[in-house]
Structures are given as C-alpha cells and as structure tokens.
Write a structure and sequence with these properties.
With 181 residues, this protein is an alpha+beta fold. The protein is 36% helix and 24% strand. It contains 6 helices and 8 strands, in the order E-H-E-E-H-E-H-E-H-E-E-H-E-H. The protein has a 4-stranded antiparallel β-sheet with strand order 2-3-1-4, sandwiched between helices. Strands 6-7-5-8 form a 4-stranded antiparallel β-sheet. Helix 3 runs antiparallel to helix 6 and helix 4 packs antiparallel against helix 5. The longest helix has 16 residues. It starts with a strand and ends with a helix.
Length: 181
C-alpha cells in the first residue's frame, strides 16, 4: 500500500456551459473513498487525499464524474509536492503582483520544441512564455484579448493541458497544505 498523497485535481473545461457543482462533487468524492476532500470555486478544482496511484485516482474520479455529473473531459492530478515545485519554478516571479495575468498550465506530456518555439513567436513585447518540466507559464500583462499568446496557447501547445491563474494556483496550494496536516 502506498503512503497517502494529497492531490490537486484539475478538471479541464469547467465553466461556462460545463458545470461541475462543488458541494455534490465533494460529497461524491468522499463517498468514493477520498479523504480531506475540498473544492475551490466553480471552475473545476478539487483537493483529495488517497493512497491510490495517480492513475487510479484519476480513473476513480473520472468514473464518479461521468456517472454522477455527465462530466467526461480531461482530469489532471498533481501531487502536493509537484504543486509546490510548480510554484517554485515560476520563471516570472515579478508577474505574481498581478496574478490574474499569470497562468500555469499543467501539461499531460512534454510539448515538441517546435510547438514551444511557435508559441513564443506570438508573444507580444512584455509577454512571457516558458515551459518548465510539464508546466507552461504564460504571462500576459496586457490581459487576454483573444489575439495574444494566451489565446493561441491551448491548440498550439500540442498536448492536453489545463491552466489556472496564479491566484488559483496559490489558493489550491493552501488547500492542499491544509489537507496534508
């Protein structure tokens, strides 16, 4: 049996027309055997603790979400240790002063170097884009206007991903740390 791990769970594509109600989600995840279940805002974020492997956690959560909520999009599980590394590895430390313009996108795999270079070409002066391990960091101090790097990122990166702004990154870290105690 593995040691209990705290997982940051990121549901892809929640918001707008796609809903994943947080109170029922917490209840169903707890009923599925997860401990320390917490959710954060209605945009597809949860914290769970489990002794299951990453793959088994994602599989069980996907089954619950499909059965209970009709949700069948990607689910990413990042351990608390990996989440802490994501925060530490931020290549744009000055960008945290306006956290809504700094995104961290968890990538399902390593993107091809050509895809990364192509996305960098979309960066306007003052914007930043970097891939560190399996996280892409996007800094758009002018906001997200549909024409900039952030708008091109999702299709351009070439691997499944889900992004959160820096405020959400930090709040999820707080919730995960609490779950670890």
């Amino acid at each position: 049996m593995n040691a209990r791990t705290v997982w940051v769970i990121l549901f892809r594509g929640v918001g707008g027309a796609t809903r994943l109600p947080v109170a029922p989600l917490r209840q169903k995840l707890a009923e599925a055997g997860f401990a320390k279940v917490a959710t954060y805002i209605n945009s597809g974020n949860a914290i769970v603790a489990s002794d299951l492997s990453r793959e088994a956690v994602v599989e069980r959560i996907a089954e619950v979400c499909a059965r209970e909520f009709g949700f069948e999009k990607d689910i990413h599980a990042v351990s608390l240790a990996e989440w802490e590394e994501l925060i530490e590895a931020n290549p744009f430390p000055d960008a945290v002063t306006v956290p809504k313009f700094l995104l961290a996108a968890v990538l399902a795999g390593q993107p091809e170097p050509e895809k990364v270079a192509s996305l960098r070409a979309f960066a306007a002066p003052g914007e930043g884009f970097a891939v560190v391990n399996k996280v892409a960091y996007i800094h758009t101090p002018g906001g997200f206007d549909g024409r900039n790097l952030a708008a091109k990122f999702d299709k351009g990166i070439g691997v499944p991903n889900t992004a959160r702004n820096w405020s959400t990154v930090l709040k999820l870290a707080d919730l995960a740390r609490t779950a670890a105690t």
